[in-house]
Design a protein that fits this description.
Rossmann fold; alpha/beta; six-stranded parallel beta sheet; 435 residues; single chain; 2 domains; glycerate kinase activity; globular; glycerate kinase, domain 1
Amino acid sequence: MTDGHALARRCLRAGIDAAHPETVVRDRLSLDGGTLTIAGRAYDLDSYERVVVVGGGNAAGTVATELESLLCDRIDTGVVVTDLPTATERIEQVEGAHPRPNETAVAGTDRVRELLAAADAQTLVLAVVTGGASALLPAPAGDLSLADLRATTDELLASGASIGEMNAVRKHLSATKGGRLASVAAPATVATLLFSDVVGDDASVIGSGPFTPDDTTYGDALAVADRYTLDLPTAAVDHLRAGRDGEHTETPDADAPAFERVTEHLLASNHTAARAALDVARAAGYEPLLLSTRIRGEAREAAKSAVAVGEEIAATGNPVEPPAVLVTGGETTVTVRTDSPGTGGPNTEYALSAALELDTSGVVVAALDTDGIDGNGSLAGASVDGSTVAPENRRRAQRALDSHDAATYLGGCDAAIDTGATGTNVNDLRVVVVE
């Protein structure tokens, strides 16, 4: 482990810590007497008869814990669905699965809907929506089954579609997504607490926007299915076509009365993590540069651009003089091109692709998913340099990349980053260290 690897990993760790609910809730929420302030907006708790916490996502459990620590007995009840439950007394936590929804998540979502249906004009709902909520707040629409949602999820995850495209499909197969939970909660006051895991921080895409107006349509969802030649279950296709033909109600848009008492608060995003990574680099004496938090596209191709910039800095001092640390974020994708993919995800594919490209010493490339789970494996990501793939192993490394088995390869050469579930999710974070 060189100094460059160690610094890259410290930068990534700082990003995770900065976006963790323990940090974010304490920084962005405060309670003064009976006044709850969320990101600068005040809510008079004494004007409500009940305070209810609901929501879902990878970080929903840790957010719930921090809300209880802040509000204590001001919270009357609540339910959140997460894949990482924590200890709470007033807020029930249901353990679901991510990224493929399961039966317990469906049951937990039913509990969320029950609480919201019981809310009235004297209820304040604190709605927690974090990355992963698309899978963790599942409610099959109409006659659809959980199996239909799971098969659809598998197709979307392997397609290479963007998160916006994926969620356009998910919204129109769901009874919760695309603003439908806001309709259930009306006329309650809803304060939505958002932890963004999407490029651009579009609230309608974060967790498929259960409390946010939706401007996509059944027709849009069908267009995504056609664009990526998705092999969706017959029931899913029939439901989308029936919706396009007017047989199902569209997701509510911004003019719907359900949103009159809904306010959104973006508490953390990829920028939160990226800024923390930059601070660590600066403190270590490196020139920090944030290139973009909107990197997207195929992971293996995005990695080549990162390598190119790192090598340019090393060779010419452009765009910054070394020693330097480049930080990027966003959400790259993987288009699965084999019937039997191995283990890995966008960040391990990004790292392995970078390792195959690097031919300059003193350059380290590191990438991870801030939720600690990259794709279908247990690793968060990896850090690599020009020596990660030895010349005699290049063919084996390329085969691992082509068969989407990057995590297995990187785990075998001590390049892997294994954080376990982190308790947050603000998308992917990547660092290039140039000595």
